Amino acid sequence: MNFLASLKIFTSSYLHIFTSKKIMEKRSIPYGKQHISQEDIDAVIKALQLPFLTQGPMVKEFEDAFAQYIGAKYAVAVANGTAALHLCTLTLGVDEKSNVITTPISFAATANCVKYCGGSVTFADIDSETALLDFEGVKKLLEASPKGTYQGIIPVDFAGHAVDLEKFKKLADEYGLWLIEDACHAPGGYFTDSKGQKQFCGNGQFADLAIFSFHPVKHIACGEGGMITTNSKELYDKLLILRTHGITKNPALLQENHGGWYYEMQTLGYNYRIPDMLCALGLSQLKRADEGLTRRRLIAQRYDIAFEKAGSNFLKAPKNGEHAYHLYIIQVKNRKALYDSLQQVGIFAQIHYIPIHTMPYYRSLEKTPIRMPKAEHYYDQCISLPMYPTLTDEEQSFVIEQVIKFAQA
Ligand SMILES: Cc1ncc(COP(=O)(O)O)c(C=O)c1O
């Protein structure tokens, strides 16, 4: 072989090693990711050219389209999911005397919205199979306490698994409680009720109010954004006022009227508005919501089949409905080692969630530490694998291969 030919072979094999190393180095698969299309970008640009950057027509357009998608009568768009939760607790009159039951396995905001209003949070443990707030546990808690101890329940459609709200509604009615559904993970998810009807998350059939988030990893991404849905006109009217400083300009509601400019601040509200360009983005994303949901379910099915074969433990899908798969969670004994080993090959899994009652703030509120054995056991083993519509089959195969390799090592 002449010198030139051997140089060519050397260079090409060197380049091959170099490029595969580069690909390895560049591989970065997060647990969740937004998908921004050219239509999304065009919609935002169009909104920026409108006369209103906030309080303009895109807000109502987004609200109406979202209410229709979810199947609720009313929707109120707000700055983020946390603001949505806060407006819900304000609207339902939570105060220093209120005690509200929720799950320890959620994002902290689910519980914090009660604290914002000065109320107390009581955590009830989860169901180990689904990681949802355990209905039987809540029932026992209510049965063991004098009537009037609790004012409301906040169940969470955790990971995208729809809570059976029909059961919770019956229980809530028995004890005179309200229900806020935290549906941040579940637009498009549903459970089937006792009459065989599909009850979509946030449709307002059972919960007084439901909330959603448009954080980038959620089904609909606005950057920041949130939505409250309800079937109650009375609650809807209150929410609209509280979203804008407690101010109204509605002539029918004014106590006085000095002229066209006149407004009244009738209660203490906030500025929890969402700007028009974010609503334009949300509206454009909403058009692809079903497409994204279908892809999420396909990804979940592929994970299920692979992990079932390998004998790995994953959170079960609903028996009486359809999951929305915001998250795909498996449970493994040596979770930290799996998390670290995935990171080494560019897979950025995540943990959902550290139980809220173990957070220093919530611990500081208790004289003796409260224990939620099922939630704590779940936390020790849970890990959320990549789940988003643009995750490719090749990337998913790589994730599956790495998880199974770890489990079998
Ligand atoms: C279950 C749940 N509730 C509430 C929130 C709060 O939403 P946001 O981040 O939009 O304030 C989140 C967001 O991560 C969430 O996952």
Whole-Å distance between the termini?
44 Å
Which strand-content bin applies to the residues?
5-15%
Mean pLDDT, nearest integer?
94
Ligand inventory reads: pyridoxal-5'-phosphate
Strand order in the sheet with the most strands = 2-10-9-6-5-3-4
For the sheet with most strands, the description reads: 7 strands, mixed
User: Helix/strand-derived class?
Assistant: alpha/beta
Count up the helices: 14
User: So what's the overall shape?
Assistant: globular
Report the radius of gyration as a whole number of Å.
24 Å
Low-confidence stretches: 1-24
Q: Share of helix among residues?
A: 40-55%
Question: Brief description of this entry?
Answer:
The protein has 409 residues and is of the alpha/beta class. 42% of the residues lie in helices and 14% in strands.
Question: What does this entry look like structurally?
Answer:
By secondary structure, the chain is an alpha/beta fold. 42% of the residues lie in helices and 14% in strands. It is built from 14 helices and 17 strands. The chain has a seven-stranded mixed β-sheet, sandwiched between helices. The chain has a three-stranded antiparallel β-sheet with strand order 8-7-14, with no helix packed on it. β3 (99-102), α5 and β4 (120-123) form a beta-alpha-beta unit. α2 (38-48) packs antiparallel against α9 and α4 packs across α5 (109-116). The two termini are 44 Å apart. 45% of the residues are buried. Residues 1-24 have low confidence and may be disordered. Residues 80-82, 106-107, 109-110, 156, 182, 184-185, 213, 215, 226 line the site of pyridoxal-5'-phosphate (PLP).
